[in-house]
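Exam revision sheet. Question 4 asks you to relate a sequence to its structure. Input first:
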Amino acid sequence: MLKLFRFLKPYRLFVAFVLFFVFLQTLADLYLPTLMADIVDIGVTKGDTPYIWKVGGIMLLIAAAGGACSIVASYFSAKAASGFGKLLRRNVFTQVEHYSLQEFDKLGTASLITRTTNDITQVQQVLIMMMRMMIMAPMMCIGGIIMAVSKDAKLSLVLVVVLPVLAGAILLVVGRATPLFKAMQKKIDRLNLVLRESLTGIRVIRSFNRIDHENRRFDAANADVTETAVKVNKIMAVMMPLMMLVMNLATIAILAFGGLRIDSGDMEIGSLMAFIQYAMQIMFSLLMLSMLLVMVPRAQASAARINEVLELEPSLTDRPGAVEASAKQGYVEFVDVSFSYPGAEEPAISGISFSAGPGEVTAIIGGTGSGKSTLVSLIPRFYDAEKGQVLVDGIDVKEMSQHSLRSRIGFVPQKAVLFTGTVSDNIRFGKENATDEEVRQAAEIAQATEFIAGMENGYAAVIAQGGSNVSGGQKQRLSIARALVRRPEIYLFDDSFSALDFKTDAKLRAALRSEISEATVLIVAQRVSTVMDADRIIVLEDGRIAGIGSHRELLDTSEVYREIVASQLSEEEIA
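Answer key, structure tokens:
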């Protein structure tokens, strides 16, 4: 957890103020019992009323000053902890944004959400307690012991018996609770995962009538978290009664032995009252430390998870001196490229070699799992090839900066993703400063104008989270418009026409042909009708190239392609 405190650096002045005012508050709390003892002793022995009023006034001023210090310390501790949480969340989010897909697969989306929210909140809460208690509790404990001994050294022997018992009880409870706190965060991850899957997959769940099944899944995850929380709270529930029992027994012992000391004339009543106050302060300081010790293990578990995110270096980074530009424009070339996913027994693609240039449409077709999407994912460098080279504009993508590389690419993913906002905002996601005319033109080419016009407010119509208020085909067309408005030199369409009907598909491809005539286009598709007009068709089978050529050439040379065509087209269409 100490590693995370570097994010407190911009707020070190606030932390200094907190420590200073807590120090003053503790001094006030330690000095008040002594003044009270003086008033009691003077009142009992002399009846000096003016002196009582004088010391009582001083006590009121010290108490008010201590209260003011407490308020100011609370204010600055809240400011420092809130700023710490803000910086930490920003850095975690920034780090996650730089992750490759490999890191996302490793940590999981649900866990990353928990770490950015719940885990940081846990650390933030403990930080507030630490700033207040880490100074106050030890200082009050040590100061209280010194003041108690100064009042009566022999009576202080009661504390020698009580304090080890109290400390042992605290350590026993904390030791039992720590493993459960660590397990709690992982179980919250699981609950978050189940909840997220249920909400995002609600349409599938309802269509297959699996609501009861999902309720049981959620109940199981929820019960698991609840069971652990109940165990922790049962253990923690023992803490307060145990502490109060020890403190009350200690008070009884102090009163009993103190009465004997007063009876023998070795101690005054005021000193006994002050001694009881100091004993309470000592034991309450241990109680504060116990509360801190209870929260620290959970915060430590959260801090370890946060540090895992911050210290996990992205596998894809820009090399020193990364190339920004090239004289060539829109050239893509694969040179004997192979790639395997982590933990896979077989490579996803192997020995891939081809080239594509501006003005050409290169289509990639093949069976499910043949490596089509993997192949196009290597171009924008979502993953790095293990062997061979992926060249863009004549430069290995590993030698280019990711910003420079991706600024040349318009990518439409296999699963269309829309963001919360208006239709216009989603299209402008591809080009932030796009004009209204550019937005409309991109939508027109993507065959989206008809359904946009039918929406209330048109381009200002609000898209719900995840695009849940538009159909699959509409989402795909908006995703295509988002890539078109960018006017890149390379277009990557990863099975982006699958949700379109044949008529819309044909119209969209016809509009694209004239619009992107000077760009390099790679289309991944399942339909033969989508790829048959391409300049070059690459047929993949089991991650390898089974044929390259035009539609006519592949019908004569590729058995795999003929099987795909025969499964989709009639003999008349093939002819």
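Marking note for examiners. Residues 417-487 form a domain with the Rossmann fold fold (CATH 3.40.50.300).
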